Amino acid sequence: MDTAGAARARRGIQRRGHVVSFRRMTKTTPQTVANRADVKVVAKGYAPGELAPGITVGVRKLIVSRLDLEDAGFPVPPVKGDRIFFGANLDVATTIDAVDADHREYLGCYDITTSGA
Q1: Which of 6, 56, 61, 113 sits a CA distance of 20 to 30 A from 102?
Q2: CB burial class (10 A; 0-12, 13-18, 19+) of residue 30?
Q3: H/E segment holding residue 66
Q4: Would you call 30 helix, strand, or coil by DSSP?
Q5: What pTM did the predictor assign?
Q6: Strand 83-86 with 60-65, pairing
């Protein structure tokens, strides 16, 4: 990770991003929140021309700063199955389908694909 690049990416996400809530749930029933971090992400849905097998309406792409997650005390990297809540009241739930820790690693960011709601 390039420290200067990570700081630049973090500032960009802070400028353009929207607050979401990352939550890792316990594995026991009933599930409760084990870790939570409210951080900004840059979120984008897929355009109609990008829809293909495995990519459907409701799938979102997110970019989040690893530094923001670490500062908020969330265990990194996020993992498949972690929940992300969107919306003004953080009440629209999605689930992480995939985390690409390598694509933007030099910028200290994760590319995340979510689905749901």
Answers
A1: 56
A2: exposed
A3: helix 66-71
A4: coil
A5: 0.83
A6: unpaired
User: Which residues lie below 8 Å from residue 49, measured CB to CB, with a gap of 6+?
Assistant: none
- The answer to whether the beta carbons of residues 63 and 13 sit under 8 Å apart is yes
Per-residue pLDDT of the chain (117 residues; tens, 9 = 90+): 888 989 999 999 999 999 999 999 988 888 888 999 999 999 886 555 554 555 455 678 899 999 999 999 999 999 999 999 988 788 888 999 999 988 888 889 999 999 876
Sole residue written with tokens 């690409």: 100
List the structure tokens of 92. 């629209």
Half-sphere exposure of 68 (CA within 13 A, CB side): 28
Question: Which domains does the chain possess?
Answer: 3-48+56-115 (2.40.10.270)
